[in-house]
Amino acid sequence: GLSLATGGRIGIVPQPRLAALYAGFALIHFLGLYDDFRAIRARTKFLIQIASAAIVAAGGFLIRSLAIPYVGTLSLGLFAYPLTVIWLVGIANAINLIDGMDGLAGGISAFAAAAMGTIALIQGSPQTAALAFALLGALAAFLVFNFPPARIFMGDSGSLFLGLCLG
After folding, report:
1. Is 127 exposed, middle or buried (0-12, 13-18, 19+ CB in 10 A)?
2. For residue 75, what are the β-bridge partners?
3. Helical H segments across the chain, by residue range
4. pLDDT tens track for 42-61
5. Is 0.90 topped by the overall pTM?
6. 102 band by pLDDT with thresholds 50, 70 and 90
7. CA distance 57 to 35
């Protein structure tokens, strides 16, 4: 992220967490891009999806607890890692599976990004809100050309990336 450095200059502060996040995003995007042009066996595709989700989880982006209504909060401890990976792979595949009609995956993802950005602002997380609203802006521009009759398509590279981002 950007922060004020000494001397009043703006400098880049390295954040290893974000490097892991972007590495996971890049891996799943290139998996989808390769799959858009050449067929990949389902097992190989699934293993690479797990690897990209594991990279994100290793960066510290975890589901650490579950809030259960009328019961309380359940801390996941070490189960946070596998649950996060399962969640991320599941959402990535869910968005990939609904990418069959013009505007459907992009529209649903845009609504999800808008909701996530708004919730992040309410909860006081401006970095998360900025990422969600940036994704919303990209999706809005994409949807202009993706509604029927579609002139561009996102393919697996876009739908898997979107699913991992939203997860």
Report:
1. exposed
2. 65
3. 16-37, 42-58, 80-97, 104-122, 126-146, 155-166
4. 999 999 999 999 999 999 99
5. no
6. confident
7. 24
